């Protein structure tokens, strides 16, 4: 029996217009009324999550790819970067003039370009960018001509005095091996082709789910998870039932137990009805 359902946000809960569909809201409310716990599992920060989900009955939250796990009342688990890992990230970004955001618990700091890139308006626009978009040229352009191109750009940020849970760096997929070698104390998580989420080694959304399962007193087998991108694969495989959206990456679909329709076609509602968790 499924006792808790977790949803990714971008590409899953949100349509390509950056909104939660009416049928999706109704489905989540129906789950809640049935006594099934509803949660989110996302790369987003708590502040961003609260803005999007303010009117919905969500009980549990996995933020920053599993680094912050909490309910509305308490923090269940948190894991910030160790100083060695954070020094590696900051040094790499400074030396290579990279665009990057550092994410604390309540706010973020860093590249204005990246912060704008995380805005809902641009995320909506980027869904229409063709796959042949010249990300390599764009990265080089920003490295060379950024108005903030200077040494120790990130090492002097005040936010470094606080715990940092995740860093988001402009980095196309072809750089994965190079980044992994340069940042051995980090794991690389991707939710889009253009940037990478850097988190402490050994961390994932599944780690967060395990803490919440223990908090609820239920089993992993009694959870269902929805997702669409590479950073959802591990949690989809670890949950009792893993559902990939119709718009998910090929690898995410291959990892799932079930593939539903897309985020623009009421995919969440369709899957919940298929598994008889809500009425048809």
UniProtKB/TrEMBL annotation:
This protein's superkingdom? Bacteria
* A molecular function (GO) term: phosphatase activity
Q: Protein name, please?
A: Putative hydrolase
Q: Which InterPro entries match?
A: Cof, HAD-like_sf, HAD-SF_hydro_IIB, HAD_sf
User: Record's GO cellular component, any one?
Assistant: cytosol
Q: Where are the transmembrane segments?
A: none
Q: What is the lineage of its organism?
A: Bacteria, Bacillati, Bacillota, Bacilli, Lactobacillales
Keywords of this entry: Hydrolase
């Amino acid at each position: 029996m499924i006792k808790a359902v977790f949803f990714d946000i971008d590409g899953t809960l949100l349509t390509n217009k950056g909104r939660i569909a009416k049928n999706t809201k109704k489905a989540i409310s129906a789950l809640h009324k049935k006594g099934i716990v509803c949660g989110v599992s996302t790369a987003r920060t708590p502040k961003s999550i609260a803005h999007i989900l303010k009117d919905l009955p969500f009980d549990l939250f996995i933020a920053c790819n599993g680094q912050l796990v909490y309910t509305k009342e308490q923090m269940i688990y948190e894991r910030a970067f160790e100083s060695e890992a954070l020094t590696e990230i900051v040094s790499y970004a400074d030396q290579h003039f990279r665009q990057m955001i550092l994410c604390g618990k309540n706010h973020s700091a860093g590249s204005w370009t990246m912060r704008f890139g995380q805005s809902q308006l641009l995320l909506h626009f980027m869904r229409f960018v063709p796959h042949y978009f010249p990300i390599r040229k764009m990265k080089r352009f920003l490295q060379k001509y950024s108005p903030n191109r200077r040494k120790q750009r990130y090492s002097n940020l005040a936010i470094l005095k606080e715990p940092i849970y995740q860093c988001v760096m402009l980095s196309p997929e072809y750089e994965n091996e190079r980044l992994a070698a340069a940042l051995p104390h980090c794991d690389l998580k991707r939710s889009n082709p253009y940037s990478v989420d850097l988190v402490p080694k050994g961390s994932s959304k599944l780690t967060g789910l395990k803490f919440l399962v223990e908090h609820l007193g239920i089993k992993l087998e009694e959870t269902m998870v929805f997702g669409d991108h590479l950073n959802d694969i591990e949690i989809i495989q670890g949950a009792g039932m893993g559902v990939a959206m119709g718009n998910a990456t090929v690898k995410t679909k291959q990892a799932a137990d079930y593939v539903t329709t897309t985020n623009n076609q009421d995919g969440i509602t369709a899957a919940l009805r298929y598994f008889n968790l809500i009425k048809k």
